[in-house]
Write a structure and sequence with these properties.
Elements: H1 6-23, H2 42-60, H3 81-97, E1 104-107, E2 112-115, H4 116-138, H5 146-157, H6 183-190
Antiparallel strand pairs: 1-2
């Protein structure tokens, strides 16, 4: 019987919890700050992050094909974006922990279904980056444990670069050239971020 990688689940959990810690630093005055995601301020980024948690949690439970679950409408102006985020983050952690390792997750934004372990890997690298995005928007540091980066980096480097990354709905922008002093910086650069970005 196939089982989910304990290392992957642990790394994923630590990355998501690290994002919760940095999101907990956000106050109302921070919501209009710019972020490394050029089209999004902090409020937009939190709405995206929250709805992606909800969508992936639904996918883990067999309901990811429902497009309404992935719609951030309404989250942009929620009165408690920090609380909403923490609730969604813990929900996706619970959903992944209970997921059937043999299951396929429906990810309608990609137009496909993918094996559970692949979906969790996608989510891991997304939140390694988005945790950093929030921190950069706030002007505070963000780091992940070395063992988390060790699991996430090969997954990130497996994401192909190319012209498609410049299309409007691409999950990551074109890889960012430059020298990296850490493996986490390598991850950020490959997934389209400039580790030196600041508002």
């Amino acid at each position: 019987m196939h089982t989910l990688s304990a290392d992957l689940l642990t790394a994923h959990r630590l990355a998501v919890l690290a994002s919760v810690i940095v999101v907990n630093m956000v106050d109302h005055n921070d919501l209009t700050r710019p972020t490394p995601c050029a089209a999004w301020d902090v409020a937009d980024l939190l709405a995206h992050m929250t709805v992606q948690h909800r969508g992936f949690a639904a996918a883990a439970r067999g309901g990811g094909q429902d497009l309404a679950v992935w719609d951030p409408a309404g989250l942009r102006d929620t009165h408690d974006p920090v609380g909403e985020y923490a609730s969604a983050a813990h929900d996706v952690l619970d959903a992944f922990a209970a997921a059937d390792p043999e299951s396929q997750f429906a990810l309608p934004e990609l137009g496909t279904t993918v094996p559970a372990e692949m979906a969790i890997g996608f989510h891991l690298i997304d939140y390694a980056v988005h945790g950093w995005d929030v921190a950069a928007g706030l002007g505070v540091p963000f780091t992940l444990p070395d063992d988390v980066v060790a699991v996430a980096l090969p997954l990130a480097l497996a994401v192909p670069d190319g012209d498609f990354r410049s299309t409007p709905n691409a999950p990551f922008g074109p890889a960012h050239a430059g020298d990296s002093t850490t493996d986490f910086e390598r991850l950020l650069r490959h997934l389209g971020r400039n580790p030196q970005w600041s508002a």
